[in-house]
Design brief:
Layout lengths: L13 H18 L9 H13 L4 E4 L2 E4 L10 E7 L25 E3 L3 H17 L8 E7 L10 H4 L10 E4 L7 E5 L3 E8 L3 E2 L8 H14 L13 E9 L5 E2 L2 E9 L6 H9 L5 E4 L7 E2 L5 H9 L3 E4 L11 E4 L14 E3 H19 L3
Parallel strand pairs: 3-5, 3-6, 6-16, 7-15
Antiparallel strand pairs: 1-2, 2-5, 4-17, 7-14, 8-12, 8-13, 9-11, 10-12
């Protein structure tokens, strides 16, 4: 059952319809502004100016935009709507201008452009949902947090916002990412390991030296065949893939060094440190993690967020991709308009209908959550 049916029609009055149209126009504007991670100042300026024009009181904290802090009631728990304003760089293969929302065919029902799907649709849908509840009383504090540097796990985004010195310490967070409006109640972490195999150089014609490339290949084979014994009941096995390898300087020189990189997607039953130690025990190469903090996450089984999802009949799943969730210790679910399969690819897009449905879903989810307090 929909709590607020026909958001863009007449049953909710003209205000929600205006908010929805303004949100779509903001997304089109956002696409025209390059906003790759660490370079979000211009898009933060744009969003901030629109929030001010719409009467949304907010703070600019580094390049994060946070609304609702001034209304915090210390007696209430807090729900944060979290989405990120940065994008990845433009990739190869675009057949249209990545900064033109009209796309190749000027289809008014589709919004094209870098960041339209990941994560612009969620940003504007969450802004609309937050505006919907501005004049409504809720049994919890409602905060809007539009974060920077998510795509690069930067120091100034969610890591700071939700960290010990940041302003956000909520009990609950709805993370906006393109999930087809299904709800991720768990997500894999990310562990990137750089490996170095060391040998001894020599002349290939005389079969001299110790070939570091062969050491690396043996270790890669061991990594591929290795099975982690603990299996997550929701996410299954730890996933691991060797994605990069570099070695050699000339065809006739036995390489004394080989470097390779392992992409690992942990589950909640292993820490990143445990995975690193276990792989090191089967490898001769020296393994070094880039970061041990990108942990896996899962919603607490008794969370009101679970009850709200069940109340609306929203499909749940386990996500293979990371998000701001790995920086947040609160109960979270990840849900938003758009499709993850379009992210980080050429000709990125989101449909107008998806954004509209995203706004309605966020409003319904907040309304249903209020029933459990």
């Amino acid at each position: 059952m929909q709590v607020f049916p026909d958001l863009f029609g007449h049953q909710n009055g003209n205000m929600d319809k205006i908010i929805g149209l303004q949100s779509l126009n903001l997304l089109r504007e956002m696409v025209t502004v390059p906003s790759v991670s660490f370079e979000e100042t211009a898009v933060a300026d744009l969003i901030g100016s629109r929030l001010s024009a719409w009467g949304v009181v907010h703070e600019r904290l580094r390049n994060n935009l946070v609304a609702g802090l001034e209304k915090m009631d210390p007696e209430k728990k807090t729900l944060v709507l979290d989405a990120h304003i940065d994008t990845v760089p433009v990739c190869q293969g675009w057949t249209c201008n990545p900064f033109d929302p009209a796309g190749p065919d000027n289809n008014q029902h589709v919004i094209y452009g870098l960041g339209s799907n990941d994560d612009g649709g969620c940003v504007v849908a969450m802004i609309a949902a937050y505006r919907h509840f501005l004049s409504r009383e809720l049994p919890f504090n409602l905060i809007l947090a539009l974060s920077c540097e998510e795509e690069r796990s930067g120091e100034n985004g969610a890591r700071w916002l939700y960290g010990p010195e940041g302003p956000l310490h909520p009990e609950m967070v709805i993370i906006g990412e393109p999930t087809g409006l299904k709800a991720a109640t768990s997500e894999r972490g990310l562990l990137v390991i750089d490996a170095v195999a060391e040998g001894k150089s020599g002349h290939a014609a005389r079969n001299e030296g110790i070939n570091a490339l062969y050491i690396a290949l043996d270790d890669i084979a061991a990594i591929r065949s290795h099975k982690f014994s603990r299996i997550s009941p929701t996410m299954g096995e730890v996933h691991k893939t060797v994605t990069i390898i570099h070695s050699g300087t000339a065809h006739n020189v036995v390489p004394d060094r080989c470097e390779f990189t392992i992409d690992i997607r942990p589950t909640e039953v292993y820490t990143c440190a445990e995975i690193l130690d276990e792989l090191q025990s089967i490898c001769k190469s020296r393994l070094e993690a880039r970061n041990l903090n990108n942990r896996s996450s899962a919603t607490r089984s008794g969370s009101p967020l679970f009850k709200a999802l069940d109340g609306l009949g929203i499909e749940k799943f386990s996500s293979p991709t990371t998000s701001d969730w790995m920086r947040i210790d609160s109960d979270c679910v990840k849900i938003g308009p758009g499709e993850s399969s379009r992210s980080h690819k050429s000709d990125e897009f989101i449909t107008v209908e998806e954004v509209q449905n995203g706004i309605e879903t966020y409003i319904n989810l907040i309304g249903e959550l209020a029933k459990h307090f």
